[in-house]
Amino acid sequence: MTLTPVPSPDSGEGDSSGVGERVQNKQKGKNKMKKIILTLITAIAAFGFSQKGETITVKGSDTIVILAQRWAELYMSKHPDVTVQVTGGGSGVGISALINGTTDICNASRPMKKSEKEKLKARFNTLGVEIKAAKDGLAIYVRENNPVSELSIAQLKDIYTGKTTNWKQVGGPDTKIIVYGRENSSGTYVYFKDNVLDGEDFAPSVQTLPGTAAVVNAVSKDKNGIGYGGAAYAKGIKLLKVKKDANSTAYEPTEENVKSGNYPISRYLYMYTRSRPTGAMKEYIDWILSKEGQEIVTKVGYFPVR
Amino acid sequence: MKRLIFIISLLIAVYLNAKSQDSSTVATKDEVAEVKGAVDGINETVLEMKSTLDALKKIKISGYIQAQYQVAESASVGSYAGGNFPQNVKSRFQVRRGRFKINYDNDLTQYVLQLDVTQSGVGIKDAYASIKEPWYRAASLTAGVFDRPFGFEISYSSSSREAPERSRLFQTLFPGERELGAKIELAPENGPLSYFNLKAGVFNGVLNNSNENDRHKDFIGRAGFQLPFDEEGLAIDGGFSVYTGAVTANSKKIYEIDNSSSIKRYKVDSTSTNLGNGFDRNYYGFDLQLYYDVPVIGGATLRGEYLWGKQPGTDKSSSFYNPDAAGTTDTKSLIDGKKVTDVYMRNFNGWYINFIQNIGLKNQFIAKYDVYTPNKDVTASDIGAAGSNLNAGDIKYSTLGLGWIYHWDSNVKFVLYYDWVKNEKINSLATGTLASFKNDLKDNVLTLRMQYKF
Q1: Which of B257, B369, B399, B348 is CA-nearest to residue B304?
Q2: Cα separations (Å) of A253 from A67, A143, A199, A237, A240?
Q3: Which A residues 158-197 touch B at CB under 8 Å?
């Protein structure tokens, strides 16, 4: 775009002209100014509306990261003008990023805490928008040849708080239990602590690992190991049945049991945005909640919400 | 024969090879054992490091620095936008706040120490210990120096607050925001009670960095609610606060407005038993915050507080009566050779309303209006009138503030803010130090601030 300089009405250029010429010059100047303004508006509008290549950033829960990547891959293949960048790090990391304004969507395997919502309110004056994107049965992993097949919530609590240290105490062989868990930035860690340990601290002997995949990997190689995490990660390991208490029936984390509530440690997997989503972000979230998006939930190993 | 030699040679070769394989297997086993030992060693080191790291993770360090440049409308003005401008000073650079906070968070117990480091020196802002009950995790006890649990603006962090300073009302009634004392707090995380919270405590009632100077303890409390309407993108928070305490007079002269007089003036009660008696310091307040997620533009909030009550002050200031505080110079007379400060009782009220609109991720627009009436029993024309003994501590102020915040990134923000300060124009007959208040003082202030927070 070329901008033509507009002579100033106060400049000496028109000094030798007559009054009529000066009026004509002023008129020409005004017309040129109008053209410039129109051109600028057109350019700005064109720039604004022709902005292709919208990028949506997604950060948070490691439990959801595989699912989020599948969603992103399929969505981008169908919407080449949209880029969805997915990273993990844990629910706490994702929520911090949402509060700091460094991600558009936060994935979390636990609900946002009141204190986190207060921080969002303080910075953005919004409450955050919670979207229940999938459901998960929090699976208890052991190695495939482990003879133990079920545990109660109380037994799990005792194992993770260090009161039970030998498999023999829960019906297994006389060997030490090697306990694997997650880091405290993980939503799964928080969920497990709140719902299984009743808020008590994990035993110092619990070996914390940086992701659910790492927990699965460790348990699959450790005949004395036990771990917890999303059901979708359960490859090459055995999932224990879990019962509410000693007198209850133990259930596997299947879709049916999770949906019916029989499996006692099931949870929603969430997506959070700062404000009510609009534009490309809204379209993406609507698609995730659509039949197509929810089919991916099932394929990955979680349970659809719709 | 050749065949025999060949077979013997082959057997020897096989034997030697097997022997070599045996020794190789032994060597491999040794190597595996060595690697296993090394891995075990690393595991032990990692476990040790983990326990150290877990302990270190409990230490949370945060802080912020607010560096600013200010221009006042005229030199040497009194200001609530970061303190008075010194003699002949019209513009200045300042580190308004330089906070450094260490928090040892052991889940149910906390240690907090916050320092303020500025050009004026180093001061303690927070120093408290806090414990939470382990059963419901809803109730906690805090003791030390911390924010007074009154209203909204006091406990709203200066690093998050959009306007550079708190309202004149709060700066006058609660200087320094903090106080020495102990409080309990009820704030359930879940269930129907999670919509409500309660904070209440007992405090010295002096200042955060002063020793108790009387036998009175002050009660401060706030009962609040938080109502989220997620579907509508709306939240309504609010509360009712009470401050009830007393100050001890070190003078027998207690001044109060004489409402029976035709000219509004203070009458003095000089009963000798006033000396050493307690005089009421009572505040009440409502606060309300509305949050609304404006589609496309961003979140908006409208906050307001209204306070009223009785304030024991001095003749020139409506700040609370504190004869031991540094800078109190209203010494009228001597009792037993000691300087004394007379008590001026005032019925006050004040309010503010603050609107903030987020515009996208980076920008915020701020508008704020606050009014402080230190003595609601008198009007502007009463002050300075013939026969009146009212003074500067009775003058009403209002401040309109407009500003813009630009968030450079998650750590840095820039603030541009302008305060239009209006004092009420008092009686035209006013003389002496009051004479300057016959017109609006030229005390507007422009603030340019850069904040780094981590």
Answers
A1: B369
A2: 18, 17, 23, 14, 9
A3: 184
Q: Are B215 and B209 in contact (CB under 8 A)?
A: no
A113 interface with B at CB cutoff 8 Å: yes
Judge whether residue B353 has pLDDT over 90.
yes
Domain membership flag for residue A235: yes
Q: Are residues A108 and A226 in the same domain?
A: no
Mean pLDDT lowest among A52-66, A162-176, B275-289? A52-66
**Reported confidence tier of residue B165, pLDDT bands at 50, 70, 90:** very high
With contacts defined as CB-CB under 8 Å, which chain A residues touch B160? 122-123
Check whether residue A256 and residue A175 sit in a common domain. Answer: yes
Using CA coordinates, name the residue in chain A closest to B302.
Answer: A125
* Residues A71 and A150 occupy one common structural domain: no
Quick one: A259 and A144 in the same domain? yes
Distance from CA of A123 to the nearest CA of B (A): 7
Nearest to A125 among B134, B230, B356 (CB): B356
With an 8 Å Cβ cutoff, is A114 touching chain B? yes
Tens digit of each residue's pLDDT (9 = 90 or more) over B215-226: 889 999 999 999
Choice between B2 and A122, residue whose per-residue pLDDT is larger = A122
Please give the pLDDT value at position B32. 84
* Helix (H) or strand (E) run with residue B427 in it: none
The amino acid at A235: K
Domain that holds residue A282: 54-135+268-300
Q: Would you state the CATH architecture of domain B61-453?
A: Beta Barrel (2.40)
On whether both A156 and A243 belong to a single domain, the answer is yes
